[in-house]
Specification:
The structure holds two protein chains of two kinds. Chain A is an alpha/beta fold. Chain A is about 35% helix and about 20% strand. Classes of the chains: A alpha/beta, B alpha/beta.
Chain lengths: ~600, ~270
């Protein structure tokens, strides 16, 4: 009973306190693609993706009711960092859906035109606003509509203390007449958050506590539910000593100031935990020690770890692209070639037999793609050109055209992602690795019908000194039972250092003499590893490795089952050099057909 | 056998098409013409390659023979072939042979699309020999000083395995075209369509914004031609947003999602 009254009170007071319009809300997921395109079109960095940003604690004065309800402490604001354009996950502060939607595009445009980040917050925003409305008249009209709505929802200066009222009036003036406010009054409290401006302070990078390595991540689930980012910082795990209690007892039972969270992704069966994480201002990630039982799946705004740049020794060393330094650092990754163990011949699993038969028939047709040859001594049709020549001069004797088999001079290297994330399940029956395994088998079956030369390799990595490159079938080996049993034996492990694997595959493919050389990458997600190789770093390095492959005359193509690949793959591979398989279970049957399309 | 239709146009010297230069390309062209050097022009689609050549041909007073190359274009289509007439067969010159005979300018657009054997007939024409051997008639034509060979291609969407061979490429003086600078592009739009300067300026802002997304979201960067089309529609009274939709956005993408996203860029510039 007591609890129910509490819930009712919470709802009622929230409804009164919160000036939001949930029925008019617009979610980031609905506009993310368009907002990202607008951001790029207006000159934003094409390498960043659009992501939901953490809500920012603003520290401004709240109304009596809001304090009573314990709400409105945070605001969804926009900013750009090296990884992403961060927009609020939901905008519902304006009374019309159109305004909330326009606010997203306005923020994307503002981030793209933020040309003077060195200025103070008000000056910087006014400069950016001016840049947008001068160059883009369509946004100008929208901006002033948004300003009206923004001012309507802002606190009334007459009800504020003198210093805050002055500040509030300046903000209103700066919104209405951008560029006009050059002196900024000082107030004790920060102003009410300005939804149409950038976040006052982008999160400052801090060096991560070095020392213990983080525990290897566990397999990721494909469907990701909670995509908000939370402000995060590394913290030392407070050691529990006996003696004095340093905290007030009533806080013990709350979701306390540090939570042990895995960086990777786990089951999220407890929504309260997610809610609690939303309510925390900064989540401290402690390194070392045991993992908490309840794990939360989320991405953290962790400051980038310092990069270890020492060169490594070894036989097969590969460089890596450091996008921050714009430098290809030599000998950064050590390749560990994993050669196949001696195995007995394997057979194709029965469930694939039907697909195999069908693909074989289809690929026989592909192998027989024919070309009409003119001026043949013998053939199926009369060659009119030759016939006219014969009539004209009487010397022509080769009067026929013939259909001949086309000469396909093609080498294909298929590179499969064998990282641990492929252990994730698709639906309830199969995991990604099962799908990759079947795909490799059917692909090989289909290609063994054509005369195209092909090789199969797999890769995974455990930091830069151990990039494992598994040989399943080299170009010189025939596709037989042994190869089949190697494919059946693949097991996922570790991470995805994609750039290094592509460079290694490029080296192998380069040695092939074929006229057309195809590098086909089969993956389930972004490049990542446990060290600095994640996010933008991995993406830029992979992009660099691919552009090097193209310069060697290779043709890279990516097949992925990551449904969110639209955000990053066009940047890495180019718009037309990848495909997202919507239903991963269809991949085994579709991959060979896709191959026939690419190589046609 | 199918006879491939060729697009040919012989422009009269008394009507010089408008061309607003972006650099010293007119000087280079004229020097190449005087020194009997063949010319290669590369650049993205819709940046004014063809217009430039039409302008120069008219300026120099030479007939222009334009051939749009495609993947079925053979050497015979360029040089000529025997045809059957009322009195038996006769020889018909192809556009290249005609240009050589009449001292014209032969322009092979998108040369990389043509079949491999076509580039070989160009070899003897494009070095200092300047001859065109016609195998089928046994004739060897010596090109007159007025003859000029021009080829163009678009490095952007160049088909894989379809580059220009170095042995061909190294015979040409090469001009690289790119999209014009802002001010010049505005002038071009005004000159071509007659829209007001403000509209032209907005259209150029639009095309430049779209170009910066090209690598990520589009097949190829949009050319000046697209906004000239939109400007013409606007000049004949169409709403700017609608004109941009049909003349620019729908030409860039067939995916409804991408088109919607691209329309946001249009709205940022032409919205109210």
């Amino acid at each position: 009973m007591e609890e129910q009254i509490g819930i009712l009170w919470h709802r009622w007071v929230n409804k009164l306190a919160v000036r939001r319009f949930p029925e008019m809300a617009v979610e980031l997921t609905d506009v993310a693609r368009s907002a990202a395109l607008l951001y790029r079109a207006l000159g934003g960095d094409p390498g960043v993706t659009v992501q939901a940003g953490a809500h920012t604690l603003h520290g401004a004065r709240r109304s009596m009711l809001q304090r009573l309800a314990g709400s409105e402490r945070k605001a969804g604001l926009a900013w750009v960092d090296s990884e992403a354009l961060r927009l609020p996950s939901l905008i519902d502060v304006y009374p019309q859906q159109r305004l909330n939607r326009d606010a997203y595009f306005w923020l994307a445009a503002l981030c793209a035109c933020d040309h003077a980040p060195e200025l103070s917050w008000p000056a910087r925003n006014q400069t950016a606003v001016l840049a947008v409305i001068q160059d883009y008249p369509g946004l100008k009209a929208r901006y002033f509509r948004l300003v009206d709505a923004e001012i309507a929802r802002r606190p009334d200066p007459r009800k504020l203390p003198a210093d805050e009222a002055l500040l509030e009036r300046s903000i209103r003036e700066a919104l209405r007449h951008p560029g006009s406010v050059t002196t900024w009054p000082v107030a004790v409290r920060p102003p009410h958050p300005v939804m149409l401006w950038l976040r006052p302070d982008a999160p400052a990078p801090q060096s991560a506590a070095a020392g213990e390595t983080q525990q290897a991540g566990t397999a990721a689930n494909i469907a990701q539910t909670d995509k908000k980012r939370r402000s995060a910082e590394h913290a030392q795990l407070p050691e529990r000593k006996g003696g004095m209690m340093l905290f007030r007892p009533e806080t013990i039972f709350s979701w306390n100031e540090y939570a042990k969270v895995e960086h990777d992704i786990e089951d999220n069966d407890d929504e309260d935990l997610a809610q609690a994480a939303d309510d925390l201002d900064v989540i401290s990630v402690a390194r070392g020690g045991r993992q908490v039982a309840k794990k939360l799946r989320m991405e953290l705004d962790l400051p980038a770890a310092a990069i270890d740049q020492t060169q490594l020794d070894g036989v097969q060393m590969l460089p890596e692209w450091d996008y921050r330094a714009r430098l290809l650092r030599p000998a950064q990754c050590r390749i560990t070639p994993i050669l196949p163990a001696q195995t007995i011949a394997g057979i194709l699993p029965d469930r694939l037999k039907r697909d195999q038969q069908r693909l074989k028939r289809q690929f026989e047709a592909l192998a027989l793609s024919r070309i009409r040859l003119k001026a043949q001594p013998d053939g199926s049709d009369i060659d009119i050109d030759s016939y006219i020549r014969q009539l004209a001069s009487g010397s022509e004797e080769r009067l026929f055209t013939d259909l001949r088999q086309r000469d396909r001079d093609l080498a294909c290297l298929l590179l499969a992602d064998l990282s641990l994330s492929t252990e994730a399940w698709i639906g309830s029956e199969r995991s990604v690795i099962d799908v990759i395994r079947d795909s490799l088998l059917l692909f090989s079956e289909a290609l063994s019908v054509t005369r195209d030369r092909f090789a199969l390799y797999g890769f995974n990595s455990h930091e830069r000194n151990d990039v494992r490159f598994h040989q399943l079938k080299s170009f010189d080996e025939p596709y037989d039972g042994k190869v089949r049993s190697r494919i059946l034996g693949i097991k996922p492990a570790y991470y995805t250092r994609m750039g290094a694997a592509i460079r290694r595959a490029t080296e192998i493919l380069e040695r092939q003499r074929s006229r057309e050389r195809l590098l086909l990458l089969l993956t389930d997600g972004k490049p990542n590893d446990t060290d600095h190789y994640e996010g933008r770093f991995g993406i830029e390095d992979t992009r660099k490795a691919l552009s090097a492959a193209r310069q060697q005359g290779l043709r890279p193509f990516c097949v992925t089952v990551d449904q969110e690949a639209h955000g990053y793959l066009p940047y890495i591979f180019g718009k037309h050099n990848f495909i997202i398989i919507r239903k991963p279970s269809e991949l085994p049957a579709r991959l060979p057909l896709l191959y026939s399309l690419i190589t046609r | 056998m199918s006879v491939t239709p060729l697009s040919r146009s012989a422009i009269q010297p008394n009507s010089i098409p408008v061309y607003i230069p972006t650099g010293n390309e007119i000087d280079i062209f004229e020097s190449a013409y005087r020194n009997r050097l063949p010319l290669l022009i590369k650049g993205p689609t819709g940046c004014g390659k063809t217009r430039f050549i039409e302008h120069m041909a008219a300026r120099l007073g030479r007939p222009l023979y334009t051939v749009s190359c495609h993947d079925d274009l053979s050497a015979a289509d360029l040089v000529g072939r025997h045809l059957i007439g009322a009195d038996g067969t006769y020889w018909a010159d192809g556009p290249l042979t005609q240009a050589v005979r009449h001292g014209g300018i032969c322009y092979l657009d998108e040369i990389v699309e043509a079949r491999k054997d076509t580039t070989v007939v160009l070899h003897a024409l494009s070095d200092d020999r300047r001859i065109l051997p016609i195998d089928r008639t046994g004739e060897i034509l010596q090109a007159p000083p007025e003859f000029m060979l021009i080829v163009s291609y678009n490095p952007g969407y160049q088909n894989f395995s379809k580059g220009l061979k170095p042995s061909t490429r190294q015979r040409f003086v090469s001009l690289a075209f790119d999209f014009p600078q802002t001010a010049r592009e505005i002038d071009i739009v005004i000159a071509e369509s007659g829209v007001e300067r403000d509209t032209a300026k907005r259209l150029v802002t639009l095309v430049q914004a779209l170009r910066s997304t090209a690598e990520h979201d589009l097949e190829a960067a949009p050319g000046t031609r697209l906004i000239v089309c939109a400007a013409k529609l606007i000049a004949s009274g169409h709403d700017a947003r609608a004109a941009c939709r049909v003349a620019v956005i729908e030409c860039l993408s067939d995916e409804p999602e991408t088109a919607t996203a691209l329309m946001e860029v249009v709205d940022a510039i032409f919205g109210d």
